[in-house]
Amino acid sequence: MVGLEVRDAVVRYGATTAVDHVSLQVTPGAVVALLGPSGSGKSTLLRAIAGLEPLVSGAVLWDGTDLARVKVHKRNFGMVFQDAQLFPTMTVGRNIAYGLGSLGRAAQRERVAEMLDLIGLPGFESRRVTELSGGQAQRIALARSLAPSPRLLLLDEPLSALDTGLRRRLADDLARILRATHTTAIHVTHDHQEAYTVADTVAVLQEGRLLQEADPDALRRTPASREVAAFLGFRAFVTQQQARVLLWDGTLPVGTVLGIGPGSLVPDQAGVEVPILDQGFTVDDVEVGVRLPDGQRAVVSVPERLDSSTMRIRLIGGAVTPV
Ligand SMILES: Nc1ncnc2c1ncn2[C@@H]1O[C@H](COP(=O)(O)OP(=O)(O)OP(=O)(O)O)[C@@H](O)[C@H]1O
């Protein structure tokens, strides 16, 4: 079983090339995240895989069979969108049973109950869709898509309409549910933390091009280019010599620089003194903007706001990136 294969796909809207010669594979059971900024072509690629956008060239295949002539509803792919798009006049149970027409009534009821257990909303069968919270509605949409056991699940920013805390929790749940059901899936997101949580492999898109495909750890440690590194939050780049000044004890391969991102710099009383430029609160801590000795701006996370114009820091790691 090969699973999904996208071969050299191109999608255009008039003069805009939304998907620019992208090749991608998703083996059965794997979860791949399509990660990229707004307008990078994530949704278009997903829609092309679903059969909702025509390809200018290239192909979408399943187990080696070209799907060009296979209609959207015959592909046996499930989709979940940003807004749950539940049927408002049906109960939760009827929504989840929607794709289960081939099963008898008792089997449908059993499958609906199983899905509700899976998403952590047991007993919700007779609830009205209009009375659900945003997070509950997204869980029901997921249950509805998973109920017929699609061979591929396409998730288009399913969590991005939710607030940050809920989004993090649901990302954990989604990762667990996809693994528990051995679902093959593609998850579109612009949030790298969400991509790392949900997916085995992350494919980074920019301006329609696939810049890198790697597991979250490799992506963070060795982004393929500065473009990818910058998108992942590595905003300052230092040479071996500059890294040494910041007391880093590692060695950079020839032809690379070290990207400094979240967690790369830590406060250290024995460290290098740098001026504080700004301070801002995040959900978890305070991000202190500092000026590095070579003039670049970088960020250090600390638990409390600092009452000082300088701080002492040490560089403990980063992303090894081509120069
Ligand atoms: N229906 C359309 N008609 C014309 N251009 C479109 C259409 N849909 C998307 N585009 C363009 O194609 C490019 C890719 O858009 P797409 O929506 O796939 O990106 P995205 O990465 O999913 O963005 P977002 O995260 O904002 O949804 C963009 O330049 C966009 O303006």
From TrEMBL:
Residue stretches making up the ABC transporter domain: 4-232
One cellular-component annotation, GO: membrane
SUPFAM superfamilies membership: P-loop containing nucleoside triphosphate hydrolases
Segments crossing the lipid bilayer: none
Xref: InterPro entries: AAA+_ATPase, ABC_SmlMolc_Importer, ABC_transporter-like_ATP-bd, ABC_transporter-like_CS, ABC_transpr_FbpC, P-loop_NTPase
Entry-linked Gene3D superfamilies: P-loop containing nucleotide triphosphate hydrolases
One MF term in the entry's GO annotations: ATP hydrolysis activity
EC identifiers of the protein: 7.6.2.9
The protein's name: ABC-type quaternary amine transporter
Keywords: ATP-binding, Cell inner membrane, Cell membrane, Ion transport, Iron, Iron transport, Membrane, Nucleotide-binding, Translocase, Transport
